[in-house]
Amino acid sequence: MKIDDSATPLLAGPLPTSIGGLWWGLLGVTAFSFTVPLTRVAVAQGHMSPLFVGAGRSVVAALLAALVLSLTRQALPRGRQWVQVAVVAGGAVVGFPLLTSYALTVVPANHGAVVIALLPAATAMVAVLRTKERPGRSFWGAASFGAVAAIVFAALQGGGLSGVHWSDLLLFAAVIVCAIGYAEGGVLSRELGSWQTISWAGPCPLIVDTVSVRLCRFREGS
Fold it and tell me: SS3 letters for the chain?
């Protein structure tokens, strides 16, 4: 029997290691590092509504993504891929911006940055569960240490576990939903492509985000 025969199962091998991917990741982390301080500046002392900031940034990203998808004539996602796109959009495009915007109306940027620093470890843990991989004990040890460190920091800043503020819960919720979105995006990117996945996730909640932005502007005008 030949490898081309349909009865022969084809096993997916591990993704190739790429130095270029690491550099893209570093660039993404660097750009992401501006998120917390700039969001804090925008929402501090009521300068801008957290709903407007969280939804507004999604609208801008969605319009740019839609333009790129249209110009490059990317194929539409199919079937269950739309469900995966919705998960990515709910976590990374809508959930994370809104939750962090509301949290940063109360907590300083350095506090928010430390808690959100848990996101890479959380993403790795969700990805492991999603892909059913079996990493070694060192992975779980490092991931658990990072999670405990973030929780202890939030507790110490609030004067103990009983002093954990609602804004900390919003930050932890933002980490969880974004980790789910990122992990699902990583799985989907093997089929749609890397930038195509996040680009399709952008326009999905565009109507909701646009209504939210217009509602904020209406409230400010009244």
Answer: CCCCCCCCCCCCCCCCCCHHHHHHHHHHHHHHCCHHHHHHHHHHHHCCCHHHHHHHHHHHHHHHHHHHHHHHCCCCCCCHHHHHHHHHHHHHHHHHHHHHHHHCCCCCHHHHHHHHCCHHHHHHHHHHHHHCCCCCHHHHHHHHHHHHHHHHHHHHHCCCHHHCCHHHHHHHHHHHHHHHHHHHHHHHHHHHCHHHHHHHHCCCCHHHHHHHHHHHHHHHHC
